[in-house]
Amino acid sequence: MMSMACARPGAKVVAPVPGFVMYKMPVKFAHVEFVGMPLNSDFTLDADALIAAIEEHAHALVYLAYPNNPTGILYGDADIERVVVAASKSLVMIDEAYQPFAEKTWLPPAAEFDNVVVMRTVSKLGLAGIRLGYMAGLPAWIMQFDKVRPPYNINVLT
Ligand SMILES: *Cc1c(COP(=O)(O)O)cnc(C)c1O
Questions:
Q1: Out of 16, 103, 109, 133, which residue is the most buried by the measure of CB atoms under 10 Å away?
Q2: Contact residues of ligand 1, CB 6 A cut-off
Q3: Strand bridging mode 12-17 / 33-38
């Protein structure tokens, strides 16, 4: 829904790789370019390279899985904060699908920044089959993503 809402000529999604495989696919379907930036060899965030890509592709979506899937690494908070500050002309999505297995969250700190939204899901708690997730962020952002929400996006019980 994020890539669909932001799909316009020249739109880009910037994300570290290896990362969650389901970032690339919907981005492609929305005809948005996916710019994968390699992680360091120990799977920590190469914040300098990511920031350089964000500056080159301003007005991008930046996807960060926290912790990352498939590496299981929790990126450093200082690195993420540098990325968020450098991405002032972009929107950073922090994906906390695996947050239940981590002791940290960006949910409170994200509120300090206008350009950050946080995504959660109950899937990794063992409830993947019910298809429920949510996003927290400024209403101005949420409203835009809501515009492209498909009909019956979640069911009545959910
Ligand atoms: C599992 C997962 C998701 C989304 O899972 P849903 O079942 O679609 O809610 C998103 N991001 C990451 C990193 C995941 O591992």
A1: 16
A2: 20, 65, 69, 95, 97-98, 121, 123-124, 128, 133
A3: parallel
Show me where the domains of the chain are located.
2-147
What is the token pair recorded at 131?
């298809």
Ligand 1 centre to CA of 76 (Å) is 21
What residue type is 120 in one-letter code? R
Could you tell me if 20 and 1 are in contact, meaning their C-beta atoms sit under 8 angstroms apart?
Answer: no
97/119 Cα distance (integer angstroms)? 7
Architecture of domain 2-147 in this structure? 3-Layer(aba) Sandwich (3.40)
Please give the number of the atom of ligand 1 that sits closest to the Cα of 98.
15
C-beta separation of 67 from 106 below 8 A: no
pTM over 0.70: yes
Going from the Cα of 65 to the center of ligand 1, the distance in angstroms, rounded, reads: 9
- Rounded to the nearest angstrom, the distance between the alpha carbon of 11 and the centre of ligand 1 is 23
Q: Is the pLDDT of residue 66 over 90?
A: yes
